[in-house]
Amino acid sequence: MVSAMESDEIRMAEASAERAEVAPWLDYPANPWWYAPAGGAWFGALVAASAREGSREPLPLVVLFALAAAYFWWARRRWGTWPRLSSMPPEFVGPATVFSAAMVVLFIGGLGLTASLGPAVGVPVVAVAVAGVLWWYDHAYARASRRTAARLGTTSRVR
After folding, report:
1. Phi, psi for 4 (deg, rounded to 5)
2. Do 127 and 44 form a contact (C-beta atoms < 8 A)?
3. How confident is the model over 36-45, as pLDDT tens digits?
4. Contacts of 124 (CB under 8 A, 6+ apart)
5. Cβ(125)–Cβ(113) below 8 Å
6. Cut 0.70: pTM above it
7. Which of the residues 5, 90, 111, 147 has the least number of beta carbons within 10 Å of its own beta carbon?
8. Percent of the chain having pLDDT more than 70?
9. CA angle 87, 88, 92 (to 5 degrees)
10. pLDDT at site 30
């Protein structure tokens, strides 16, 4: 039989382990002001490059993915660590699901809009929509981080 003292020690150890596991989700610097507009512009360019009919030129996509890789390299160095999806706290599941679904819908919708109305309409519309989703997700992430920190009795550096 486990004594009350041992039971408390086990609970404290489990709580400490959970705090360590979710720390990368709670401790990262705020995204810079240009993150949402630049992400929207990048996504709009991705839709434009993907919607070009008859073009087999891979250079635009190579450049876009090189820019994305450079951003992720910079963010990883700035962040110091990278959260693992396997350790995602439950408070983040809703916002992450909405974000992922929105990005898929915006990509497919952006391709359709660009095909039907042309890139002069489709690309700016999807770029602005993606910038809005990135802005929303940044704030939803911060709220999820604060809720997780409160539940675990720790702090969040996310603004």
Report:
1. -60, -40
2. yes
3. 999 999 999 9
4. 44
5. yes
6. yes
7. 5
8. 94
9. 170
10. 83
